[in-house]
Amino acid sequence: MNDKNMQLAKELLKKHFGYENFRQGQEDIISHILNMEDCLGIMPTGAGKSICYQIPAMIFDGVTIVVSPLISLMKDQVDNLNQVGIPATFINSTLSNFDYAQTINNILNNVYKIIYIAPERLSTDSFLNLLKQLNVSMFAIDEAHCVSRWGHDFRPSYTEIANIILNLDTRPVVAAFTATATEIVKEDIIGLLHLQTPFTLTTGFDRPNLYFSVETPINRKQFIFDYVKNNQDKSGIIYCLTRKTVDSIYDELLEFGIYASKYHAGMTEKQRTSNQDDFVYDKTCVMVATNAFGMGIDKSNIRYVLHYNMPRDLESYYQEAGRSGRDGDNASCILLFNRSDIVTNKLLIEQGNPNQNHSNEYEKLNDIVDYCNTDKCLRKYLLEYFGEFPNFDECDNCGNCNSEIEVTDITTDSKKILSCIKRMNERFGMGLVTDVLKGSNSAKIRSLGFDNLSTYGIMKNYSKDTIKNIISFLISEGYIVSMGDKYPILSLSFSANDILFKNKSVFIKKKIEKISVSNNNKLKTMNNNSNIEDLQYDENLFSLLKSVRMSIAKNLHIPPFIVCADISLKQMSTFFPLTVESLLQIHGIGAHKVEQYGEVFLNAISNYVIENNIDISSKSCEVNSFDFVLTEKKEETHIITYNLYNGGKSIDEIANIRELTKTTIENHLLKCYENDLDIDLTRCVNTQYENDIISAIDKLGCEKLKPLKEILPDEVSYFDIKYYVLKFSKNKKL
């Protein structure tokens, strides 16, 4: 019976989600769930945890209840499920009284297979009464680490789940999922949710498509601005520790002409929702946020996550960094390390609960500081932290493995700067200190008498940026104290004496790329270990299809990534699918999506191919057949069209019979003609303009079809032009 169920599971995977195979761990978990065994799945963000309960939900007779912590996550999940043809809904505070009543009525009439609910609403009398009237086959708990006080996002309401399940007349199978869980958190989840001898699976925390790097730029803001500017066409998140930093970076990005969104707890709920929607719906490409924007973000096409500040623990960092690359395509995760973040995090820990013992939190903080300071493989460090021991020392896919460390002695320069600040009585900011070191002849310097200092002009051969960068480094290392918000004043710390009077040496470590990178701030991704092929896609077609996707999304009022992922568009731009059969082979494109808007994509691709005279003979997708896939028999698809045409059918009739677009049928017929099959296309070609078309070809050539179309009458179609181009070429050969 289970074998039959697993076969059905694979068919549903292809039909609804457009995937040929399950990812690592998915099949094992689904198999155990279908055997009515409790499960705990510990799988990294983007590994496909949701499918582990969504597929069984379709097979079970009853309904599946999914406990999900965030409203935004529920909405995205439900929108996605409805788009792939799986009936789902949610119950939360966003529903109006009318919508709530309608939803409850639909639930009682068995309209839905999956119901999402917030943990806080589980124990309400209304929902408990509803549960008693339902045939609940499965309880799925998403973000299950929230049940544990040792997790990084404890939610008291999660502790009620076990009692609610216990009070049901018939206990359903229970499946819990989380992205990050240490051994103690795992034990907590099993105990607090009362999982019964659960099948536990940890797929591994490695995300091969993510490029991890720790950078220590002298000017973090400049690094951010340069990076975002060089990746403006990509979606990314910039995480900051404080609301103040979020506001500052957001404002400066706008000044740079970069349209961004921001998100933190100091904003109104309306503002947060509006800004999140702008980001999710691709109205803005950049989100600047605190960790309040962490869990529940299901946007699949995030290409980078920059941490302006160091988070307080590696669990949080990995969770936040893991928001990128959920579609399996390459993404970058860059942490900008500054020692001042250690102090800030310690303050935030103390402010959380002054009376609590924070030893565990300080230990976790030390772990992430060690991560930032290590010169070993970053990927290996992360995996070992989460209890995995990879069989490599270098991954060739992180900032440390792809860099060499260059050490520069700046002791003498540091002494010059520190001496200058001391001689200026520690009362001025970076700008004026720099001007004195450069030997500026400004009226202010002369009036203050700084042109008489021994340090005046002592670094005149240095650029201002170089001097400021060294000052910033000395600030980050704790030798200089910068006090004040608007106009910070520089003063010396006690440790500065070690440099000035105790001959302490000062070194700057700089990473040097081992490989050639055209721009240091371009999106860094390495494909050596990626499980997604390095597609040589047509960038112009990819851009066009992104516009098509956006148009579809607007019409359906859903985020673009729900229509299809970036990787799907890249595959379309690589293989140029022109038929329903070939479109179904694209990653993430299932039968339901093809039915909804497949023709829109096919027409866009077909028109692009025609307008640019692209030979797609070597770009076809290999068709993998399932029983439900609309595949033709062994006969080639253009031959089927050929037989129908020679049988007297018109192009429109053939398109209707085969459920294909008119353009696709036209391409089939042109292929038949090109292959010298016995076919007369003059019955469907506009022969009235033959001489005009031939004349245009003589004049402009036939490398591009669009220029020909532009000088010919509107009645002449691309099909007409293509036919005469083929005819012209054949006659030329003769």
How would you briefly describe this protein structure?
By secondary structure, the protein is of the alpha/beta class.
For this entry, give a set of tags.
Rossmann fold, 4 domains, seven-stranded parallel β-sheet, six-stranded parallel β-sheet, 46% helix, Arc Repressor Mutant, subunit A, alpha/beta, 734 residues, 32 helices
Note down, in words, how this protein is organized.
With 734 residues, the chain is of the alpha/beta class. It has four domains: 2-202, P-loop containing nucleotide triphosphate hydrolases (Rossmann fold, 3-Layer(aba) Sandwich); 210-390, P-loop containing nucleotide triphosphate hydrolases (Rossmann fold), CATH 3.40.50; 408-513, Winged helix-like DNA-binding domain superfamily/Winged helix DNA-binding domain (Arc Repressor Mutant, subunit A); 539-733, HRDC domain (DNA polymerase, domain 1), CATH 1.10.150. Strand 12 (302-307), helix 13 (314-321) and strand 13 form a beta-alpha-beta unit. 41% of the residues are buried.
Q: Please tell me how large the radius of gyration is.
A: 31 Å
Question: Can you tell me the CATH superfamily of the largest domain?
Answer: P-loop containing nucleotide triphosphate hydrolases
Task: Choose one word for the global shape.
Answer: globular
Specify the biggest β-sheet: 7 strands, parallel
Cα separation of the termini = 64 Å
How many structural units, i.e. domains? Answer: 4
Strand order of the largest sheet: 3-4-2-5-6-1-7
Classify the secondary structure makeup into a structural class: alpha/beta
CATH architecture call of the largest domain: 3-Layer(aba) Sandwich
What's the overall average pLDDT, rounded?
85
DSSP strand content: 5-15%
Assign a percent range to the helix content.
40-55%
Per the CATH scheme, the topology name of the largest domain is Rossmann fold
Low-confidence stretches: 515-520, 525-533, 622-635
DSSP helical segment count = 32
CATH class of the largest domain: Alpha Beta
- Number of DSSP-assigned strands: 17
